Amino acid sequence: MAENIIGIDLGTTNSVVAVLENGEPRIIPTAEGSHLCPSVVAFTPSGDRLVGEIARRQMLTHPARTIASIKRRIGTRSTVAVDGRHYTPPEISAMILQKLRDDAESYLGGPARKAVITVPAYFNDAQRQATKDAGRIAGLDVIRIVNEPTAAALAYGMERQQAQTILVWDLGGGTFDVSILSLGGGVFQVRSTNGDTHLGGDDWDVALARHLLSLFHQREGIDLSHDRLALQRLKDAAETAKIQLSALDTTTVNLPFLGAVNGQPRHLEVPMARQDFESLTAGLRERMIGPTTQALYDAKMSATDLDAVILVGGSTRMPIIQQMARDILKQEPVVGINPDEVVALGAAVQGGIISGELDKLVLLDVTPLSLGIEMANGAFARIIPRNTTIPTSETRAFTTSQDNQPAVDVHVLQGERELAAQNKPLGRFSLRGISPAPRGVPRINVTFDIDENGIVHVSAMDQTTGARHQVLVTADSGLTEEEIQAMITEAEALADIDNIILEENELRVQCTQLLQTVNARLDKIANDIPIQDLARLDKGIIRMRQALEAGTAAELRAALDALRDLSVHLIPRDGMTTLEDLDALPPTSAK
Amino acid sequence: MSDEMHEQEEWNPQTAADIAEAASETSSAGQDDALELRAALTQCQQELQEARNAYLRAHADFDNFRKRMRAERDQEFARGSDRVLSELLPIVDNFERALAAVTATSTVASLQEGVELIYRHLISLLERYGITQMEVEGQPFDPKYHDAVARVATTAKPEHTIVGEVQRGYRKNSDVFRPAKVAVAVAPDEPIEE
Fold first, then answer.
1. Pair (B109, B59) in one structural domain
2. Chain B: residue nearest A229 by CA?
3. pLDDT attached to residue A573
């Protein structure tokens, strides 16, 4: 097996590592179980080295022994001194890379010596070389240094598309980067970069925390600005509220026992609407506009020249940031991949391209819509659900809906509606020669086999007689992705209505079947039934016929229950399958 | 011309026939070989096509299996969450009783007793899931279990002793479930590097 190539996003605040598995990039969790590894290194007084989360936790207690944000110094000649020893930035970065490599090898169960490492697009040669050196010190063979925005584009598969211009907004914890790339001949080129090295998600948390602090002061007359513990609670609550407001329109900041006046506890409860949070932090968003405008100017283009906008960094989850992309850049931003992880995933994809693993991938299609057949009650029986990878084959057993049914009609359909009539017909055929038997007894296997070209072979076989028939259909709907999604959404919205109609259809089928059975029995034993009981049965039969003609679902149900009751009590069993037994059979009957 | 050159082999019908027969046999053998080879080739192509088809189907089956496993895992996760959430509901019920019991004449002591009862119920629920509380006050700071969020300059406690708890920490069995957020004592003259 070829050795894994890991993709590493070596970030200022956090680092992430990913690998390609079966053609899909996956994040490798750290030994602590997280997807993010803080880019922090510390040296304990006893000489131990701490890297990642555990180093971050003791930053405040041992600030002189803890090194964070080393990426800001990579490519310079500066050093960091700890216990009289001077460490270069590549040496510190190597410690972070070493931990990521160790965690990757532990996860993969094998060596992970080859790596693709990402850097900001504005990194110069010295910074890139220093990053490579860091990899080498960590025992890694750095097969490629990739720009972070390029990695993000690779994660979204943009290298497979036609030449295009892409803008990447990267709003991380502490920095904001704008990059404009152009793609041509499968190669990404950086047209321009800009940003703000001191603008990140943390600034949004601080802005909201300050607002809460001020509110508490106004309401309770308590100034908590020198209470470190209370400030920490406020900052944590602000971050939580920011995250919640990315998904919800409103949230409540709930901080009981935040302070005290004359020994009496004071609490803070603040409902916060998303638009209020957005108003509070408008100034931060405005700081994104200047660098963006400058980057476009430097690339000699305008927003309308862009083909795609990609959002990177956890803070881009804020809906207002996505709205800004629509307003300023006139593009629906490309989202879908976790913005904290997209760069590392793209680095892993780059590794797959270099190793040729992606070329060896077998690309398989999926069925965009479900395939199935029509049931006796008008329901759509799904045999191949949508989004199934092909080629594939599936068989289900059906039965007859009428006594002595000589043939079954197999009506092949495609779609998502519960009502067969609302789905697209693809073909139909009849399987004849079914041996006479009560309904529900014959077993008909219906098989759907879809080959790699999407050709559907539908066959039906009577298990008893071996009679078989089949038809070939093409399941290519000719629909666009948007049209397919619209169909799926419509089907979900109308599912309740479809089910109501189906319920009524099913009642009709049961009523028809019961009528047939009762009439067949009466033909044989009417003379043995007392006249008054026969009269009651007749009434029940007439009631059912009327319900079948023009009745509502409720009337059908009432007529069905009534006739069942009458027929069970008045028509004796003679060793054959009882009416109740027949009616209790599951309605898996083909037409 | 020499006699030798003029000398020709006398035409022997028998030899010619032999040659013709041999040629015919060779030709026929050659044709048989070609037919055999063609048949073998066709069979190989068929086997290759069947093997390819089987390979693609195995690949697709694995892909569908992966999708099913992901869906089942998400469902299992949701079911697990539902189980824990449903166990919280009786605790909510008790808080509602506590709030309903507050009147102008309620004593703090009796309310406190009720709230403590609810609190102990919650703690025992956590313990049923293997989650226990950390006791950290006065302990030496250890980044394996503690997250330092504040420094307190003091000589009243040894340096790097925990002097305050912002948020309680929890263990799950022997692992850290949530580290405790703590304030740590530092020497008054220790420089603070921002």
1. yes
2. B166
3. 54
